[in-house]
């Protein structure tokens, strides 16, 4: 209510000044204009409720999850609990952190970063999502550590950032193509252990493929 009264007062004062000076009633601040504050990039990243503040909150949630995880039975520091009941608790904690992390967005102010966020809201690997992941990595992993929960909440974006830093050309790969190119570990293990036939006995070189006319019964002589 106080904000509305203040807005009405500002508008009334502007109208009064314009009338007293005989100027046309133009360029009078509108309510929508007064409710969209401007901000600098520093405000968005390091100001109150900015990106850094929200990442700090995520780090605290991650620390709580790690403390909870240490009370569960895990074989290694990076594995999930083997017990189904413990795994359910662990997954719920990870999901909570992930949802809170995904909810981080630029403050609703008049700034290019906010406008770009709105334009790319539904785009995978948007500028904001990469910036958010970069900030998370810098804040949490800069001390030569990589908590497992960081990978769970921002693993895909961190992979993209890593690829972008790789010298040379970078190419994206669809999920369907990845499945085709992915190594069959069970098949490879079988070859190494000798439980499967040798690869050269199962496949032939496409350049040495026998021609059909090398086999008389496969050739159509028109008879």
Topology:
Layout lengths: L1 H19 L10 H4 L6 H6 L4 H19 L14 H19 L9 H8 L7 H15 L6 H17 L10 H7 L3 H9 L5 H4 L21
Fold and architecture overview:
With 223 residues, the chain is mostly helical. It folds into three domains: 6-35, no CATH class; 39-165, no CATH class; 184-210, no CATH class. Helix content is 57%, strand content 0%. The protein contains eleven helices and no strands. Helix 7 packs across helix 8. The longest helix has 19 residues, at 2-20. The model is unreliable at 1-10, 23-35 and 216-220 (pLDDT under 50). Residues 1-30 are annotated as: Disordered.
How many DSSP H or I helices?
11
Portion in helices: 55-70%
Number of strands: 0
Write down the secondary-structure element order. Answer: HHHHHHHHHHH
SS content category: mainly alpha
Dominant shape: globular
Low-confidence stretches: 1-10, 23-35, 216-220
Radius of gyration: 30 Å
Whole-number tally of structural domains: 3
Estimate what percentage of residues fall within beta strands: under 5%
Question: Sheet with the most strands?
Answer: none
Average predicted confidence as pLDDT = 76
How far apart lie the N and C ends? 97 Å
What's the quaternary structure here? single chain
Nutshell version of this structure?
With 223 residues, this protein is mainly alpha-helical.
Which keywords apply here?
single chain, mainly alpha, disordered N terminus
């Amino acid at each position: 209510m106080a904000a509305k009264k203040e807005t009405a007062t500002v508008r009334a004062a502007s109208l009064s000044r314009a009338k007293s000076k005989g100027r046309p009633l133009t360029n009078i601040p509108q309510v929508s204009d007064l409710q969209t504050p401007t901000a600098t990039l520093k405000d968005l990243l390091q100001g109150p409720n900015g990106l850094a503040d929200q990442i700090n909150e995520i780090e605290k949630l991650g620390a709580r999850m790690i403390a909870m995880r240490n009370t569960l039975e895990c074989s290694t520091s990076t594995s999930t609990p083997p017990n189904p009941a413990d795994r359910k608790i662990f997954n719920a904690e990870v999901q909570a952190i992930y949802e809170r992390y995904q909810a981080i967005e630029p403050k609703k102010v008049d700034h290019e970063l906010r406008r770009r966020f709105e334009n790319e809201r539904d785009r995978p690997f948007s500028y904001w999502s990469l910036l958010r992941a970069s900030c998370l990595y810098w804040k949490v992993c800069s001390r030569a550590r990589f908590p497992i929960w960081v990978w769970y909440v921002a693993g895909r974006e961190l992979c993209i950032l890593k690829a972008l830093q790789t010298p040379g050309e970078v190419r994206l790969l669809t999920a369907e193509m990845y499945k085709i190119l992915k190594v069959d570990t069970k098949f490879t293990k079988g070859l190494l252990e000798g439980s499967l036939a040798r690869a050269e006995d199962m496949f032939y070189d496409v350049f040495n493929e026998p021609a059909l006319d090398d086999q008389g019964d496969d050739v159509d002589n028109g008879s």
